[in-house]
Specification:
The chain is about 85% helix and about 0% strand. By secondary structure, it is an all-alpha fold. The protein starts with a helix and ends with a helix.
Length: about 130
């Protein structure tokens, strides 16, 4: 046997050992991936009901917000109608003084509050 034959034999043995090591390592990785897949499926099964409940809750909150916004607009319209009705019966001012009727002050404040709440809900929904 020459040195080339010995080195070739050593190289073949190293190649076989390396191949066996790679096969064993890949088998271990495969088993770890199977365990990971099972754990991930369990986690997915647990999270699905939570996400469904969260979606339902979000839809309910959106519905409540929309309904509240509609009611605020209705209230604003009602206040505006009352204001218009009261302004028809307000006193005619003989002078250009800045004195205001207490009813007009109340209506102005109520209108300002309704516009403020309306703007708040718009900003909250956006």
């Amino acid at each position: 046997m020459s040195i080339m034959d010995v080195l070739l034999l050593i190289l073949i043995i190293v190649g076989i050992v390396t191949g066996i090591y790679i096969i064993i390592t890949l088998r271990n990785y495969n088993q770890a991936l199977v365990v990971f897949k099972k754990d991930f499926e369990k986690l997915n099964n647990r999270l699905e009901p939570i996400l469904e409940n969260f979606n339902a809750l979000t839809e309910k909150i959106i519905n409540i917000s929309d309904e509240t916004e509609k009611r605020i607009y209705d209230l604003s319209d009602t206040i505006q109608n009352v204001r218009n009705t009261v302004s028809k019966f307000s006193f005619i001012r003989g002078s250009k003084s800045d004195s205001r009727n207490p009813v007009q002050d109340l209506l102005s404040n109520a209108t300002a509050i309704s516009k403020g709440v309306s703007a708040f809900w718009k900003k909250l929904n956006n």
